[in-house]
Amino acid sequence: AGDGSGLVGAAVDDGGPPAPERVLFPPTFSVSEIKNKQRRHFMFLRWKQQQRKEKLAAKKKRRKEREALGDKAPPKAVPKTIENQRVYDETTVDPNDEEVAFDEATDEFAPYFNRQTVPKILITTSDRPRGRTVRFCEQLSTVIPNSHVYYRRGLALKRIIPQCIARDFTDLIVINEDRKIPNGLVLSHLPDGPTAHFRMSSVRLRKEIKRTGKEPTEHVPEVILNNFTTRLGHSVGRMFASLFPHDPQFIGRQVATFHNQRDYIFFRFHRYIFKSEKKVGIQELGPRFTLKLRSLQKGTFDSKFGEYEWIHKRREMDTSRRKFHL
């Protein structure tokens, strides 16, 4: 057309070789504008694949540039994450703080860390547990040494706790369930508390974990506690540590890990082996689960008259994504 209203990207005939035709999409084009659901899904997958290819190509290019520069290469940029942009908490524990050292020497867990008491754990459930909860308790008892599983038949926790104290149990673990799925954990340190209430999620038994190892041995495992940095997190970490005997048996090569990330506590149980001086192989044994602290109560379990040290209030505490409490 003489007014230039022809196809977008059409070549101008100036006597030279014909230019390839270009198709220009509108600047505001989006995959979400495609009405056909299957076509939209197909185009979205193609777009994601193209994004991955471009990201991989850029990564290879940066690696080649770093190899070419050698020692003169600039330091790698640290990616921004919610974890490393965490808002500073004034209750963060300083390992050299005298007040913290005094509290550790006089709190309820001091006899354990002084090797005056040996952990003895009672694992029980809510009333009439179903098969999945029963299997989870049995597998948890193989992870925690010197633990015993008893199933409740309508017996209140207030009656169970005095019997545990009389039989020299140091901790009580209660696994609650909802619709046949374990969804809560109560950990009470005996005889004087404290008691922690956790919401439990992402429970995976040994058969549900891919490439799981053989059954755990009876060796005392090592315990790893990660990122319990505040005073509250320090108390919760000491509660978990007091469940396991203080002297691990390294010959068993088993590790129980409590990893805190954004106030979610991830539990994993592994066996490791040194393949060489630089390579280590690990094999997950299971079970695995995730905990979220809901409250920390002074003393033993008391739902009516108990005094709470800390309660998670979502509307008041979860005002910032970068604010964490553990």
From TrEMBL:
<dbReference type="GO" id="GO:0030687">
    <property type="term" value="C:preribosome, large subunit precursor"/>
</dbReference>
<dbReference type="GO" id="GO:0000460">
    <property type="term" value="P:maturation of 5.8S rRNA"/>
</dbReference>
<keyword id="KW-0698">rRNA processing</keyword>
<dbReference type="InterPro" id="IPR044281">
    <property type="entry name" value="IMP4/RPF1"/>
</dbReference>
<dbReference type="GO" id="GO:0042134">
    <property type="term" value="F:rRNA primary transcript binding"/>
</dbReference>
<keyword id="KW-0690">Ribosome biogenesis</keyword>
<dbReference type="Pfam" id="PF04427">
    <property type="entry name" value="Brix"/>
</dbReference>
<comment type="function">
    <text>May be required for ribosome biogenesis.</text>
</comment>
<dbReference type="GO" id="GO:0005730">
    <property type="term" value="C:nucleolus"/>
</dbReference>
<dbReference type="GO" id="GO:0000470">
    <property type="term" value="P:maturation of LSU-rRNA"/>
</dbReference>
<feature type="compositionally biased region" description="Basic and acidic residues">
    <location>
        <begin position="65"/>
        <end position="74"/>
    </location>
</feature>
<dbReference type="InterPro" id="IPR007109">
    <property type="entry name" value="Brix"/>
</dbReference>
<feature type="domain" description="Brix">
    <location>
        <begin position="119"/>
        <end position="302"/>
    </location>
</feature>
<protein>
    <recommendedName>
        <fullName>Ribosome production factor 1</fullName>
    </recommendedName>
</protein>
<feature type="region of interest" description="Disordered">
    <location>
        <begin position="49"/>
        <end position="81"/>
    </location>
</feature>
<feature type="region of interest" description="Disordered">
    <location>
        <begin position="1"/>
        <end position="24"/>
    </location>
</feature>
